[in-house]
């Protein structure tokens, strides 16, 4: 069996490791097919970078056999075992296992083929949708014969002005900037980079960005929002609510001395007692948004007082300083930033760092795991939707490279490079964009803090180690960094040039190919040593599956090529040791290498150049742009071992080339400094704000809570002291026109309802309630958001009346009531009157799926400010004719979905649905609208008989948070009543800081079946499964729950 020795060794290893493997097999003498399949699926999932399984030798060896060897080799081994069959137990087990693994390998090929076919079908469908979308937007280019830009990147800054720290009046801008990085362990000092797959370069990037922005003139304060973790498994510092980052002005007097610095703000989110990976954070995002909203509102008002005092105007009474920009990092924080930007009406910026669609395609191409397993392991569909939501709201997307724009963001429904160019040209020419919006992609390379670089040593050329270390490796100076001795103890000759690789132990970092290239090139082994800094570890068996597999393979390869004395792989290092590691490599005239399969940017390449190290880097991704600027190294194919060894040998052996690369890197490194990054970043943000015409925050949000409440108080309260004004007195004594409730067949339209509400006067009962606690001043709210409809879409009045009677029986006058519905205002008023409930008893009516807010107790009742608040990016009439065509299935007749003009409002387009089985689901319609540049929110309501299309930032959940800001109500003092079923926005009302009561057996007909396709994410990714704030109750407990809610506060 020549050539099968490695396979035989792996099979023997599986037998030896069998009793230790974690699956509970009934018969350890036999490996079942299902058990082996579980091993491969779980190990492959862990190898993708997100696994949390403990390392298992059995998993590793099974994966090696299935992935590395052809089924023909397995069949040969099985044939030999059968031919030499005997009665020994081990031989029987080996025969059985060979057959089962051979069968599993063939099954894997079948799965790969099926996934390839499915992926090809999906790609063809997407291409067809893109083609249809391109035909739809052809109208944008009519009469716009524009020469294509000559440069490869879309130029977005031809008229961009560089950042100025002062405004037009010469005063400092006093900007407040909010950064969000939700997952990972974030702190200012001693960052635990590489601790797990969630704590990588992004953590360092956002911390240093916060410091650098705070040091920029014109920036007053920077907050970096992240999750608070109070767990015994992590350091106590991650549980501290506030951490002030060291300001650069403390060490550099030329930087911003007027601001109050940068802060890490840790907000509780999800389980507080344990650290959870990013894949499990999705259902807790609304809670984080609520806490972030409260924090930003408080800080904005405090900053107003501080700035007023600094400017000499005295403290108090200033206009709140709302964030200049909210910047989300990664998909989860991108969705948080999108929601906050919509609630506060401030610009939003997104940085992806790594993207879900790209990862999904890579995993499917590997063929190891099915789409279903990928989705369950990584919550990949939820992540992709989070990125799409961020694209919907973003003014600007910051990327590191052109490749990220063209090859990664181009995979998303919400971004099309050709459409973005067309819209940009139209804006420059002053031509309307027909309701379409596309985020602007800008390339801004990450910066670096050069304060740790010893300029004097670099000017001296770093010398060599002979003056510091003796020929036996002993240090001749006592002040040398301890990490040096930790690395050099591995080497037989520590004076040889060091090839340095620094990354997480992740399969994507491709360290195994580097080791093979080093081990198989004898000349390279003679000339150089190899240092591998692969995170921190105590015991490989305690690490996650992917990390353990990489490190185990590293040790095996070192042993295979007998690289002892040539390769260093220390177990521990601190973040403060990293500069010393670079310096050690530079002193040995070494080379830094990044051999990753794909590198989104490559920050380590910039760090290495700052310490005078030439580099060898992958040609896939960001290193292409970095080396074009620095000109200090060689690009290689990461799959080509010979190319890697040749490039390393070239730089190590040719000292003239080594010094040329060193000088080039040091000469050009300033282009990646943090001050340069911040100037470019703020210039682009300022340019985007000017071009997009993004509004400032809503006027009502600029009022402090007391003033807002005073502005909103009812006429009977606000005019108490002006009784001498007869005209006002008469206006208050207007007759009541709502005494007779309208019937179901009445013609009361929106105009009639508004007129009636304007002239409405409170009944004595309602007036007494108002005198106790005026609407807009109550600090506790009960929101009735139960969607009670019959099968034909008409209100189920008997069910609604039972809920309203129970809910309002105990709280009248002491709590405020809000009625939230997908119906129009006229329909809501009619339903309330038919239930014998006076609309004036509600503090607010949220109608049209969150598109309109009305205050029945004041004149005029409509909230004009809210209309302006949600207006941004609203395509209005431009999308009206497109929706029926995109929402109907291809074979459906036009009459199945038509415009319902009677239910349309300025911020709500309503469509009547005749056949539920012949219309598309919400996610499919939204996808088609996104591909055409339309940014909308869509809701099926009234038991799937109506489709509401509303502005992007409008929803029932958002309207409640708008009211909480305007009235100064703590979200924890809001209770929301929902049913077990409801409109398609029903699930958005569950999570958050408020308390949610799910009333059982009340709603018989909902619309949720038209929300998502089966292969999309589940409700468990939206609503926390074990939340004390979401409680299911029977109908007879509504009143008691509201009573206890009132007593709690």
Written description of the protein model:
With 1049 residues, the chain is α/β, with parallel strands linked by helices. It is 42% helix and 11% strand. It contains 37 helices and 25 strands. It has an eight-stranded mixed sheet, with helices on both faces. It has a seven-stranded mixed sheet with strand order 18-17-16-15-23-24-25, sandwiched between helices. Strand 15, helix 30 (797-808) and strand 16 form a beta-alpha-beta unit. The longest helix is centred in the N-terminal third of the chain and has 48 residues, at 89-136. The radius of gyration is 32 Å and the shape is globular. The termini are far apart.
Fold blueprint:
Elements: H1 5-17, H2 33-50, H3 57-68, H4 71-83, H5 89-136, E1 175-180, H6 201-214, E2 219-227, E3 242-244, E4 261-267, H7 285-310, E5 325-329, H8 330-344, E6 348-351, H9 356-366, H10 371-378, H11 380-393, E7 396-399, H12 402-408, H13 417-428, E8 440-443, H14 455-460, H15 482-488, E9 498-502, H16 511-519, H17 522-527, E10 529-533, H18 545-560, E11 567-568, H19 578-587, E12 591-594, H20 603-610, E13 615-618, H21 623-630, E14 633-636, H22 641-653, H23 655-668, H24 674-692, H25 705-712, H26 715-718, H27 726-732, H28 750-758, H29 764-772, E15 781-784, H30 797-808, E16 816-820, H31 825-834, E17 844-847, E18 852-854, H32 864-870, H33 877-880, H34 882-887, E19 897-899, E20 909-913, H35 922-931, E21 936-941, E22 946-951, H36 956-967, E23 974-979, E24 995-999, E25 1030-1033, H37 1038-1048
Parallel strand pairs: 1-2, 1-5, 2-4, 5-6, 6-7, 7-8, 9-10, 9-12, 10-11, 12-13, 13-14, 15-16, 15-23, 16-17, 23-24, 24-25
Antiparallel strand pairs: 3-4, 17-18, 19-20, 20-22, 21-22
EC number: 2.4.1.14
Organism: Ensete ventricosum (Abyssinian banana)
Domain Sucrose phosphatase-like: 781-1001
